[in-house]
Write a sequence for this structure.
């Protein structure tokens, strides 16, 4: 009897195990249809992201996180990644949810510094400025080294704007603009403009303007331009070298760009048939009449009008020579040449700074063209002429 009872117990246990396993398999199969591993899920998420389906990818990643049973470190990395996706979707609350979860899972993660910055950015975008400031101070990776007390130049509510912030704003401007704000009066004008802009920005955020989809898109477009420009400037700074010998070679190859035109300083008087020439010339020599500079290639004389042939004639005269009377339209003039400088080639030392500047500009254009060309090749860019020109394709 005992043997029979033991046998029945064993059979029952095997049957239970069989049906339990079969039930799990069916349930699992009904849920996924095919065997689906964690790696499959991650690959699926990567594919969604690659296709720009960030919202769907985020939903899938949430499911993955809830069902994940691996290491805390890997789960922290996945939470950080999901938070970053939500940042791109402007879903700042969801981003914070997963950033904080990642932090709890792995306090010493490699991505901590980047995540700290994103947490502050998310708080700012949620209008939680005071909380953002607290986070900024609390997170050691973002705390700036202690510095001497800096003069506060303005305030917006509880926020203090000091000289360092103004200097940072000025230094963010293009190099050719920074020098404009060195004087005290111009710096004061910049501070006023900067503070006004910051105050208006704070008000706009409180009104939710920064959350309007079209505004977000514009901000992203501006961000793209800034990022691209910064990348190009970085490449230019790395590659642009103005070797003195190259600058001088550029001067030799472009000497015709560095020629001082012939010029003459002339004085003239309008005359009539009754005026005696000698009397008019004596008047010009004593300083009477109008004084003008005329240059090689010019076609107009100030106060007279178009007089191309007269200018050529004046430029060919020596100092002290008189010309005229000559007719220009329906009037007559007598000229005296007070100064005369012939056409001449400027020496390299005279125009060294100008040559160096123009050489750098030329090299800059070449570097930019090279960056664009290499990028188009690396990214496999293809522009279809018919579409770019607005023509309809055959398929249409």
């Amino acid at each position: 009897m005992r043997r029979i009872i033991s046998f029945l117990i064993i059979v029952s246990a095997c049957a239970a195990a069989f049906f339990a396993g079969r039930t799990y398999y069916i349930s699992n199969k009904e849920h996924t249809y095919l065997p689906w591993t964690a790696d499959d899920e991650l690959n699926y998420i990567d594919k969604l992201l690659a296709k720009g389906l960030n919202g769907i990818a985020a939903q899938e990643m949430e499911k993955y996180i809830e069902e994940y049973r691996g290491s805390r470190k890997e789960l922290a990395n996945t939470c950080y990644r999901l938070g970053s996706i939500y940042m791109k979707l402007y879903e700042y609350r969801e981003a914070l949810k997963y950033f904080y979860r990642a932090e709890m899972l792995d306090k010493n993660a490699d991505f901590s510094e980047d995540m700290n910055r994103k947490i502050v950015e998310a708080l700012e975008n949620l209008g939680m400025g005071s909380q953002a400031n607290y986070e900024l101070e609390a997170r050691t990776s973002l705390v700036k080294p202690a510095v001497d007390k800096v003069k506060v130049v303005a305030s917006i509510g509880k926020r203090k704007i000091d000289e360092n912030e103004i200097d940072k704003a000025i230094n963010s401007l293009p190099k050719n603009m920074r020098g404009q704000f060195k004087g005290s009066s111009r710096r004061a004008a910049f501070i006023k403009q900067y503070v006004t802009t910051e105050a208006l920005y704070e008000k706009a955020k409180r009104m939710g303007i920064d959350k309007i989809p079209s505004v977000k898109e514009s901000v992203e477009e501006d961000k793209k331009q800034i990022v691209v420009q910064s990348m190009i400037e970085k490449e230019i700074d790395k590659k642009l070298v103005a070797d003195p010998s190259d600058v001088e070679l550029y001067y030799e190859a472009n000497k015709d760009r560095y020629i001082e035109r012939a010029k003459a300083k002339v004085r003239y008087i309008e005359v009539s048939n009754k005026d005696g020439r000698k009397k008019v010339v004596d008047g010009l020599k004593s300083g009477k009449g109008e004084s003008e500079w005329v240059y090689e290639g010019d076609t107009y004389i100030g106060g007279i009008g178009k007089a191309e042939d007269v200018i050529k004639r004046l430029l060919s005269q020596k100092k002290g020579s008189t010309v005229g009377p000559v007719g220009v339209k329906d009037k007559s003039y007598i000229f005296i040449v007070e100064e005369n400088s012939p056409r001449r080639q400027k020496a390299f030392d005279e125009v060294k700074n100008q040559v160096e500047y123009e050489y750098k500009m030329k090299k800059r254009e070449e570097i930019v063209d090279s960056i664009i060309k290499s990028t188009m090749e690396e990214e496999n860019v293809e522009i279809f002429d018919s579409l770019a020109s607005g023509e309809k394709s055959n398929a249409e």
